Amino acid sequence: MAAPKDNEFWKLRAKHGRDKLFETPALLEEAAYEYFSWCQDTPLYRTDFRGKDADEVHIPLPRPFTLTGLCLYCDASEQFWRTFKASGPSEDFLAVISRIEQIIYTQKFEGAVVGLFNANIISRDLGLVDKKEVAAELKLEPITGMRILSSINADPTK
């Protein structure tokens, strides 16, 4: 059944749209620090077998901070983060966003440098590229005055 024409039922709603995920920069910063604490409190584990009896050992490994992980922790999407950052929030929000991204970058970079994380994966994730530009000029000149003998028709006695 369709709604009657010229209805104004929409005015009965208590609110329009979704609430902001973070009302203030302090709430965003607090959520990020909670995520960082959670990462440190819940490490990943690698199973290894040690000793002559091959006893099973669980080795704790640090969990890298990621923007994806932060968004999942805050029940948001990465698209939300990109849109929120690009929408030109206040200077206070931009400062907090920048600091969060710097913390994530630094933790990954330093973890890769000391061997806690796979350096190849982290360098690709952080956009670090080891490029060498080689500029060279190639000049080709024809060789004249040489006689080329074919080995197919050559006389073996000569």
Overview of this protein structure:
By secondary structure, the protein is mainly alpha-helical. The protein has a domain at 21-126: Topoisomerase I, Chain A, domain 4, CATH 1.10.132. The protein is built from 5 helices and 2 strands; from the N terminus they run H-E-E-H-H-H-H. It has a two-stranded antiparallel ribbon with strand order 1-2. Strand 1 and strand 2 form a beta hairpin. Helix 4 (91-113) runs antiparallel to helix 5 (119-126). The chain is extended, with a radius of gyration of 31 Å. The N and C termini lie far apart (105 Å). The mean pLDDT is 83.
Keywords:
2 strands, mainly alpha, DNA-packaging protein, Topoisomerase I, Chain A, domain 4, GP3_package
Give me a quick take on this structure.
With 158 residues, this protein is mainly α.
How would you state the average pLDDT, rounded?
83
Shape: extended
The second-level CATH architecture of one domain is: Orthogonal Bundle
Biggest sheet, open or closed, and with what strands and sense? 2 strands, antiparallel
| Terminal Cα span | 105 Å
SSE arrangement, N to C = HEEHHHH
Class computed from helices, strands and strand pairing: mainly alpha
Beta-strand content = 5-15%
Question: Helix proportion of residues, in percent?
Answer: 40-55%
- Say how many strands there are: 2
Q: Which ranges are low-confidence, i.e. pLDDT below 50, for 5 or more consecutive residues? A: none
Strand order of the largest sheet: 1-2
What is the CATH class designation of one domain?
Answer: Mainly Alpha
In CATH terms, what is the fold-level topology of one domain? Topoisomerase I, Chain A, domain 4
